Sequence to fold (130 residues):
Amino acid sequence: MNLMEPEDWRVNLYSCILPAIYASIHLTAWNFEFPTTTEHLIWKIACLTISSAMPTIYVLLAYMSWEDGRESQWYAGRVALWVAAAVLVLLIILYGLSRVFIVVESFISLRNVPVSIYWTPSWLQMIPHV
Fold:
């Protein structure tokens, strides 16, 4: 599969933009309170990984298809291809783990919410059916 085919450019663009939008929504929690500082740090790393992984994956795939098309006999070219493949696999695994972490952390963070989350606004008590 050639990544640069004209009819697939929209799919490639959307698959880069949509995860970035997903991550940017979760990045709005940059200064929120988390149960631990470790969870807060991992949240930031996961969001940044999600936003940057897909463009990097496409760059690596384009490089690998270009390098494979050259059929370089040089040792350095083959090593670079193997390194790119290893980075690609690692990046895909990190991307998946980051997505899972964001979902799981969203739910387990409910164990330590501030008391103010349970307060009812005073104006809401004036509406009889609520």
Notes: Residues 6 and 12 are 10 Å apart (CA to CA).
